[in-house]
């Protein structure tokens, strides 16, 4: 009996040892997960200029699944060439997906720099064979080293890859653009004649269709328009009758309307209009839409309107008005010449 | 007795001077031994055992081994394999197996040493998926055609700037695995990217001017922006562009910018933008692929302007800037902007 018990105990011991050895073999022989290579990977620095601080975008495609952090190791070569990684980082994947077609790096991601490495943490476990993108948005996320090629290592979980960047000479990634815009000014009158027709003492007469005085200019200071009557005796003058229907009101006076049976002549202006006119300041000739209202002219250029800023096809309608009395001498040659000028204020 | 013995020996000698044969079959190879057994097998394993055979290398030179014995006569022909880097690869190398007259159903396995020739401490094996692995399994023995046939295949997942040594062995049926054949080696290239931005030639010129812009007429910049781009990245790369201001801005009149936008400047009242005027080995990306006065806008955010979908060597492009002013674009001589052009390669 003693022997039988002894044998039984020995058997159990041997069996236990066997089991332990078997388990050990299994543990030893269990395959390890092997690191795979990320693909389609790039670090896009937003500046390639040497010695320049910049933000950057990271895009990569996973091999395996499960990574919850991503690192970009700019390597000692970067640092030894005067490059650096900022300890303070800001990270976002809000806009990169639309640009790249990759999936925004998921999670409540945060980023920090230490040594040569930027680490993005709190990443929601990544899927296998999926392209992801993320932006390190600080304008000083990294500082570029001197010109040359450098190979940061991108790691997502246990998978990684090298990528390579070309740093160019100082500001060799930029083009300076210059331009000049010349001064321009155009002015025109829609017509050079204003036929009032037969005047009657029964009431004033106005020009049937206003003449448009149009200005276009890129003068930063705006523009102005003036008018004058250069005649020796300003007004509607008849050589035959040797009579002049004088301006009413007189030149320089505020606009007023002609009266029936009272001799008078004036120039009225309407409201400017066009593509771009700026803010106007009217002279004394603004009629305010009232018929036969205007002001008089003499040999002095008097402001019709001025406006701030540039103008694009900005037109001022001008109307001549005349009225006669019962004693105004009859003639068919009453006429006047009104000069209208304009200028840009450069 | 001696005479009888001699007669027997002579008869035996004569007997073996002629290969035994019938009408249809001939015994081509045979040896003398003291006996043995063969084809002892289970469902998974077979044993071919012969006693009295020489089973170790008897004679050798630097190029040849003498491997006598019946077992050696069953071996598949020792194959050759050639490995090359035909196209500046940084992560793969190309191999082609030379079958050395092995039949079509012969299987081949490839062993690799990294950085040094054979033997090496930690050899790797080309797996069925053309990656390297630490172990050789049955699945890694493949037919010649599975290894790409005469066109060969690529060993992938390699490290840049590294020399790889490879040799191959063959087997065809049971008990026929050959030794490894002669090795071949090649090196992967380093990852490469090269980018140059200029307005005259690489390294020269970094300004574009528009002088005396007139209302109503699109104008081209004084120079095109030149881009040179090369990379061996598997997935090519892209060129990107962005603007400091998104406009030509005057310091004198900052409120009167010539704003950049995607537009046909022949009909737009004013604008500023870019188009790819010409390319070699690169593709213009919308909206920079317009013609005439159709330009893409330049924003303060980065946009892709050129792309190469695969490795590219000697890619170039000319980017034309155009501007147009309106009647109300304020006169000034100090309009300006800074355009940044960058590149990235997809490894």
Explain how this protein is built.
The complex is a heterodimer of chains A (346) and B (347). By secondary structure, chain A is mainly β. Chain A has 2 domains: 39-167, Sandwich (Immunoglobulin-like); 185-344. Chain A contains 3 helices and 30 strands. Chain A has helices at 2-29, 75-80, 96-100; strands at 39-45, 53-54, 56-61, 70-73, 84-85, 91-92, 103-104, 110-114, 117-121, 131-136, 142-143, 148-150, 153-156, 159-162, 165-167, 174-181, 185-189, 205-206, 211-217, 223-228, 236-238, 243-245, 256-257, 264-269, 273-276, 280-282, 293-294, 302-307, 311-323, 339-344. In chain A, the strands form 8 sheets. In chain A, strands 17, 18, 19, 24, 25 and 29 form a 6-stranded antiparallel sheet that branches. The termini of chain B are far apart. Chain B has helices spanning 2-17, 70-73, and strands at residues 36-41, 46-50, 59-60, 65-66, 80-84, 92-98, 107-114, 124-126, 132-133, 142-143, 153-156, 163-171, 184-187, 193-198, 207-213, 219-220, 225-231, 237-243, 247-250, 258-259, 263-264, 271-280, 283-284, 294-295, 303-308, 312-324, 332-345. Chain B has 347 residues and is mainly beta. In chain B, strands 7, 8, 9, 10, 12 and 13 form a 6-stranded antiparallel sheet that branches. Chain B has a 6-stranded antiparallel sheet with strand order 20-19-27-18-25-23, with no helix packed on it. In chain B, a hairpin with a 4-residue loop joins strand 3 and strand 4 (65-66). Chain B folds into 2 domains: 80-187, Immunoglobulin-like; 193-345. The interface between A and B is large, with 53 and 63 residues. Strand 16 of chain A pairs antiparallel with strand 27 (332-345) of chain B.
């Amino acid at each position: 009996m003693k022997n039988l018990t002894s044998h039984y105990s020995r058997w159990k011991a041997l069996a236990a040892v066997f089991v332990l050895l078997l388990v050990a073999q299994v543990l030893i022989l269990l395959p390890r997960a092997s690191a795979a290579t990320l693909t389609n990977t790039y670090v896009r620095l937003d500046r390639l200029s040497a010695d320049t601080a910049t933000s950057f975008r990271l895009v990569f495609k996973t091999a395996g699944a499960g990574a919850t952090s991503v690192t970009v190791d700019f390597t000692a070569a970067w640092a030894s060439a005067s490059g650096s990684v900022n300890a303070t980082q800001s990270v976002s994947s809000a806009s990169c997906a639309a640009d790249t077609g990759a999936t925004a790096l998921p999670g409540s991601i945060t980023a920090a720099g230490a040594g040569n490495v930027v680490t993005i943490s709190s990443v929601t476990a990544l899927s296998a064979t999926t392209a992801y993108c993320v932006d390190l948005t600080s304008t000083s996320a990294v500082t570029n080293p001197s010109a040359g090629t450098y190979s940061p290592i991108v790691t997502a979980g246990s998978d990684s890859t090298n990528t390579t960047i070309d740093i160019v000479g100082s500001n060799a990634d930029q083009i300076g653009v210059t331009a000049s815009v010349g001064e321009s000014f155009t002015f025109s009158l829609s017509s050079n004649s204003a036929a009032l027709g037969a005047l009657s003492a029964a009431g004033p007469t106005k020009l049937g269709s206003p003449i448009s005085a149009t200005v276009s200019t890129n003068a930063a200071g705006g523009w102005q328009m003036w008018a004058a009557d250069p005649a020796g005796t300003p007004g509607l003058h008849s050589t035959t009758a040797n009579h002049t229907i004088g301006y009413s009101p007189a030149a320089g006076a505020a606009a007023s309307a002609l009266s029936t049976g009272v001799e008078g002549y004036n120039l009225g202006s309407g409201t400017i209009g066009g593509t771009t006119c700026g803010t106007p300041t009217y002279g004394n000739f603004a009629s305010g839409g009232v018929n036969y209202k205007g002001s008089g002219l003499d040999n002095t250029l008097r402001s019709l309107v001025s406006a701030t800023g540039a103008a694009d096809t900005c037109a001022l309608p001008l109307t001549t008005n005349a009225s006669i009395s019962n004693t105004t001498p009859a003639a068919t040659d009453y006429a006047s010449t009104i000069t209208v000028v304009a200028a840009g204020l450069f | 007795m001696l005479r009888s013995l001699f007669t027997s020996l002579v008869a035996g000698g004569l007997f073996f001077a002629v290969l035994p044969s019938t009408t249809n079959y001939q015994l081509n190879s045979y040896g003398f031994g003291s006996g043995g057994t063969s084809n002892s097998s289970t469902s998974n394993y077979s044993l071919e055992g012969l006693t009295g055979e020489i089973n170790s290398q008897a004679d050798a030179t630097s190029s040849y081994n003498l491997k006598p014995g019946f077992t050696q006569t069953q071996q598949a022909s020792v194959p050759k394999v050639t490995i090359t880097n035909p196209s500046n690869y940084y992560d793969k190398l190309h191999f082609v197996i030379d079958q050395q007259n092995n039949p079509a159903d012969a299987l081949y396995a490839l062993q690799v040493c990294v950085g040094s020739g054979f033997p090496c401490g930690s050899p790797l094996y080309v797996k069925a998926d053309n990656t390297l692995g630490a172990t050789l399994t049955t699945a890694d023995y493949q037919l010649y055609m599975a290894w790409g046939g005469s066109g060969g295949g690529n060993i992938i997942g390699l490290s840049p700037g590294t020399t790889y040594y490879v040799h191959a062995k063959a087997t065809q049926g049971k008990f026929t695995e050959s030794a490894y054949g002669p090795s071949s080696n090649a090196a992967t290239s380093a990852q490469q990217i090269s980018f140059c931005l200029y307005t005259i030639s690489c390294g020269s010129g970094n300004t574009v001017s528009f002088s005396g812009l007139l209302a109503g007429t699109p104008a081209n910049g004084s120079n095109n922006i030149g881009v040179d781009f090369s990379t061996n990245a598997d997935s090519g790369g892209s060129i990107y562009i962005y603007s400091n201001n998104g406009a030509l801005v005057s310091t004198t009149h900052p409120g009167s910018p010539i704003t950049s936008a995607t537009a046909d400047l022949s009909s737009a009242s004013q604008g500023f933008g870019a188009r790819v005027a010409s390319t070699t080995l690169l593709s213009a990306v919308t909206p920079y692929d317009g013609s005439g006065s159709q330009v893409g806008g330049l924003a303060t955010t980065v946009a892709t302007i050129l792309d190469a979908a695969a490795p590219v060597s000697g890619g170039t492009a000319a980017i034309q800037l155009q501007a147009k002013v309106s009647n109300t674009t304020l006169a000034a001589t100090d309009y300006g902007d800074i355009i940044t052009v960058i590149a990235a390669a997809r490894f």
